[in-house]
């Protein structure tokens, strides 16, 4: 049976996808890459579900925002593999 999400909540994603999460004891959301348990700012570990939305949330870690922006800029430029 497919998992039902509560109304009003954006779709939660699994560990295999990248997105924002709140590690235990963290007041801020940190960004985690797919299959990566360390946050972009390298300060937090988390292996649970992430949400790839809320990029503009005030709860997001400033360090992760910076690194995510830099990463996306690089991707937009089309870095060759
Ligand atoms: Zn962070």
Could you characterize the architecture of this molecule?
- The protein is of the alpha+beta class and 81 residues long.
- Helix content is 20%, strand content 7%.
- It contains one helix and two strands, in the order ββα.
- It has one helix spanning 62-77; strands at 19-21, 30-32.
- It has a two-stranded antiparallel sheet with strand order 1-2.
- It is globular, with a radius of gyration of 13 Å.
Which sheet architecture does the biggest sheet show? 2 strands, antiparallel
- E-strand count: 2
Helical amount: 10-25%
Name the helix and strand elements from N-terminus to C-terminus, one letter apiece: EEH
- Number of alpha- plus pi-helical segments: 1
Q: Shape, please?
A: globular
Overall pLDDT: 84
**Small molecules (ligands, ions, cofactors) in the structure:** zinc ion
> How much of the sequence is in beta strands?
5-15%
Helix/strand/pairing class, anyone?
alpha+beta
Adjacency order of strands in the biggest sheet? 1-2
Segments where pLDDT lies below 50 for 5+ residues? none
| Cα distance spanning the termini | 39 Å
**What's the gyration radius in Å?**
13 Å
Which characteristics define this entry?
single chain, binds zinc ion, 81 residues, two-stranded antiparallel ribbon, alpha+beta
Q: What is the topological layout?
A:
Blueprint (H helix, E strand, L loop, with lengths): L18 E3 L8 E3 L29 H16 L4
Antiparallel strand pairs: 1-2
Bound molecules: zinc ion.
What would you say about this model in short?
With 81 residues, the protein is an alpha+beta fold. The chain has 1 helix and 2 strands, in the order ββα.
């Amino acid at each position: 049976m497919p998992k039902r999400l509560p109304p009003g909540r954006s779709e939660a994603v699994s560990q295999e996808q990248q997105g924002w999460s709140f590690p235990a004891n963290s007041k801020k959301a940190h960004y985690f890459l797919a299959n990566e348990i360390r946050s972009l700012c390298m300060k937090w570990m988390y292996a649970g579900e992430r949400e790839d939305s809320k990029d503009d949330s005030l709860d997001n870690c400033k360090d992760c925002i910076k690194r995510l922006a830099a990463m996306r800029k690089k991707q937009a430029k089309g870095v060759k593999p």
